[in-house]
Amino acid sequence: MRTQVGIIGAGPAGLLLGRLLTRQGIDTVILEKRSADHVLGRIRAGVLDSATLEALREADCDQRMKSDGLFHDGFDIIANNNRFHIDLKGLTGQQVIVYGQTEVTRDLMDARNEDGAPTLYEAAAVNIEGIESGPVRITHEHEGSRKELVCDYVAGCDGFHGVAAKTIPATIRRTFERVYPFGWLGLFADVPPCSHELIYANHANGFALASMRSQTRSRYYIQCPIDTDPADWPDERVWDELAIRLGPQAAASMKRGPSLEKSVAPLRSFVAEPMRHGRLFLAGDAAHIVPPTGAKGLNLASADALVLARALTALIREGSGTLADTYSADRLEHIWKVERFSWWMTTMLHRFSGQDDFNARIQLAELDYLRGSRAEQTSLAENYVGLPF
Ligand code: RFL
Ligand code: PHB
User: Fold this and answer.
1) What is the tens place of the pLDDT at every residue in 293-312?
2) Which of 64, 68, 107, 374 shows the greatest Cβ crowding within 10 Å of its Cβ?
3) With a 6 A CB cut-off, is 96 part of the ligand 2 pocket?
């Protein structure tokens, strides 16, 4: 099989890139290790910022997001039993949209089907050759045999555990990482949310987050030890702990119900540089991970896809390599700012075991400053709605 751009991974980064290139008349083939149902079954991100809005608009896949998404003007923070509001709209003029990653993925998969562009599911890339010389050969396992996809360029959109990033020679690749000493236990339930906007809480027992997917579906998280087994957390125990951490006001309006999904996610900050080597370009979680506290992972993946689509279009249609040459440096400039914001939100809102008294007081002072300072709230809001890139 031959194509112009081979895309590894049918997560948001790969599907968005595919759609944007198709609209420019560029041929792509997506190889995805899992089945379409498996990809659609993963409950992940819920908050879309300006990057995803712009990418979905350019992809002409934003109709359902605009009609079914919930437009939020702000969110609440609870710290030291004080609840205060971050007025995103008032501070920046912008909103965020609550619309699940599952739905974004479904819209992009439907568009790709309508385009008649090929996606091979249950096709795992195992090896990539020719990124320095071309043509690129992607060996993959599909329907019980080894096959080859030959392409001019390859986009590694295969997430944190993918194969593409490791194709960049170790002498060139640099990685930066911080692993946090806790995880998030997430619970998904068919109950109305406890508040019309999100609530982030810093409590002595640890962080908690009240989020949602719609007026009838809630998503909650609590900070937990990284080795937590969800089986040790029957639903009632999670609800009881949420009620404590979110405080009496939220607890009074919290509707309980059976969990549809319950799992533990680790928290990590990670960047791999560069994001391009020869004919290989990385996008999304394949190149960087942020802890979910700032709600940025999917949004960074969207920004990568948008910029990469423009670069590949210029390269393939006009033979101009300028955008491709600056892709990595341009993206990393934005990514590091988002890494900083996600690290800051995580550090401010979580309890760190063994945290000394000095750090504990600094954390309280930070939250108190945020509560009283329009300047710091503006900085938070600017980052939360999405920095320009
Ligand atoms: P994905 O979605 O992981 O997709 C990568 C795809 O590549 C496939 N793959 C391969 N395919 C072929 N051959 C191989 N060898 C392959 N290896 C892997 C995989 O099967 C997969 O389908 O990466 P992508 O596209 O870069 O998208 C990134 C986002 O999924 C991720 O950043 C977000 O979900 C992060 N995230 C959040 N982001 C936000 O913007 N807002 C949020 O509110 C938010 N909340 C979250 C989150 C992530 C979470 N978890 C579980 C990590 C909440 C949680 C709990
Ligand atoms: C979610 O709804 O899954 C969600 C929302 C906000 C975050 C992280 C996750 O910061």
Assistant:
1) 999 999 999 999 999 999 99
2) 107
3) no
